[in-house]
Amino acid sequence: MQHPAYGELRPVTSYASVLLARNPNPMTLDGTNTWVLREPGSRECVVVDPGPDDVEHLGLVAEHGPVGLVLLTHHHEDHTAGVAEFVQRTGAPVRALDPKLCRDAEPLVDGEPITAAGVELRVMTTAGHTADSVCFVAEHDEPAVFTGDSILGRGTTVVAHPDGHLGSYLDSLRKIAALPPGVRALPGHGPELDDARAIAEHYLDHRQQRLAQVRQALTDLGPDPTPRQVVELVYADVDPAVWPAADLTVQAQLTYLEEQRTL
């Protein structure tokens, strides 16, 4: 059973399986990946990102309980809109970096160890895609990192101004790139990837290439172009359906370049 597989819990490692929500669109790719974690033999499970407010999806996830803990990678609604319904179904506490998203539990702390359902995780803050983005590193003989939207299974991540911040995102990619080789990336969208470190390095190269293109666009367009003018030059190869997101990405890039000039 390969990605995408709707409506079925698809095993990926001995302790991590994924249930794909039916919310595909240009931004979510095939839909949101809800991860269900438990060591073999564990009664309870951990759920990472319950997903959208989709009663069918949430019911399917809840069937694999009891749920001891819900973890959130960031606040975007395609990952969190179903939390209230899911908590009502399962009674599980919810932890996130943002205290406003937590339910009956404390906010996450960078570097904090979490042991639940027999799985050992380490919190790694990865601001950039959003200010509250985190990854969860599984300290296991099958090592993996649950990347939310910091790394996707296909394509690259939107860093949308003002919540998205490119300088922070580059720093976060460097954190992921510092993981040992062979740590699998289990993302919030798209298929799993074999080596998070290699993908993070690729993302860093891609961002530097885009920044070079933006600098050239500023030279070609003259002073104070609009973000859309830059998008039409730099993102001409991207589906116009996602150009509104590209507008915000360009604004994040322009903000980053201005920050670099003032250092």
From TrEMBL:
InterPro entries, per database record: LACTB2_WH, Metallo-B-lactamas, RibonucZ/Hydroxyglut_hydro, Sec-metab_biosynth-thioest, WH-like_DNA-bd_sf
The record's CDD domains line, in alphabetical order, gives:
metallo-hydrolase-like_MBL-fold
What is the name listed in the Swiss-Prot or TrEMBL entry for this protein? MBL fold metallo-hydrolase
The Metallo-beta-lactamase domain is annotated at: 31-189
